[in-house]
Model the fold of this input.
Amino acid sequence: MPTLTINGMTVDVPQGTTILNAAKEIGVEIPHYCYHPKLSIAGNCRMCLVEVEKFPKLQTACSTVVTDGMVVRTDTEKVRKAVTGVLEFILIHHPIDCPICDQAGECGLQNYYMKFGLHKSRYALEDKVHKKKVQDIGGQIVLDAERCILCSRCVRFLTEVTGTQELHFFNRGDHSEISIFPGKPLANNYTGNLADICPVGALTTKDFRFKCRVWFLKAFDSICTGCSKGCNVDAYCKGDILYRLKPRWNDAVNQAWMCDFGRLTYKAMNEARLLTPFMRGEGGRKVAAWGSLLPDAAFRMQAAAEKGGPDRVAVIASPQSSNEELYLLRRFAVELLGTKNLAFTHRVEGDGFSDDFLIQADKNPNSRGAQLLGVPGGAAFDALVSRIKAGGIDALLVVGNVIGALSEEETAALLAKVPFVVQVGTNEGPVSKAATAVLPSASVAERGGTFTNHAGRVQRFRSGFPARGKAKTPIEILASMGNRLGAGWNFAGEASVFTAIAETEAPFAGMSYDSIGMFGQEIGK
Ligand code: SF4
Ligand code: SF4
Ligand code: FES
Done:
């Protein structure tokens, strides 16, 4: 293990560590643009110059591997002058776009100018080289070539991560620019990551551009609900509106990336939301009060079970629900209604696109959790649907907005066979259009809990803001309905439900929110 000193501080680092990463270990910031921890080292921006004793010239910290006894300084006048000079060079042709640039607030140029630049421009505004602006280059991305600092992160991402190589440098000298070949737009499912890794405002996403200044946004930890991979994400909101998802680094799951489909899943949490409880009767749909609707729904389910027998009631669960919600739902069905008619809505293997990187065919975040908690899918779900079709169910509780892959008409026809249908759902959809009672649920951004991904990794998601409208969390809804039927549950939120899961459900034995932590925990480890 080599030992070196940086600015007079001694540090031991593993063999092969670069100066830049060794400095990070002891909290010394070395400015950089082209370096990205998940991409190969290019060493082209020269922002990371440092002084190394016995070296006649300044060295790039991102590409210089430490040796035993090395003496490094990042704080000398020579380094400061060099870094300021590099920044001035990079900014020579940069447009004066900050007031209208969407990167403002999280831009590497702005940040380093304030820390290491603060120089007066010596270049006349009218001499700047202009390049193409606002080009739709495909996928989720808009390119502003004039803002590009030629760091090549995007080129390396498309070579080393997706292997699709759509972006290249064209021309020479101060006319060098990043672009696609004519008629060959970005063609991969991970284009949004380009905006994340571009250190400046050259690559921005069509979806987020001009929607909100970043300093108004608050970020919170979440998990993508787009498939069973469970990519870790930062969700960004202002008030109770979500604006974007960005990948949160987790080497065990998604490294630093997420797919384009998953990136847009936040939209459903803003649009067509169910915000008030309602009851459907002869006069149509009428707003109802939680205080009357919750006991009414619970007692009508119970009454149907008592009248026709527990076989005449059923519960359809959702693989979009958390482990905590599925656990309570199972207990509600089995212990309080006494029914075995419980299944989660069909997990169709191969119903969606998958690849050998992140995207999984199962477009739900928690099918694995449902199975581990004793809520079956597949054949059990098919059998339940057949039973409903045959008129064998008098009261049905549906969690979720859709039933399998059924269309609106098919859902309406199926639910018409059941005299009483109660839904716990987040969005208007086929089920809310046919259910007798609708109990609006908080979205994944408005509640907390855990999902178990396809590989058996249990991961936490957190609430970013309170439930919108009059919606409640499914835990509140199920606990309240359960207690009306004498459950005696004292659950105060998802943490207490998870504690109960860890005590009673073998696969989750010994786990806790602490042991799951920021990065998740594999079942059995
Ligand atoms: S577009 Fe962005 S990531 Fe690509 S080379 Fe230019 S500055 Fe770097
Ligand atoms: S791979 Fe799956 S979990 Fe990851 S971002 Fe895409 S849809 Fe979401
Ligand atoms: S970060 Fe070292 S040369 Fe760019």
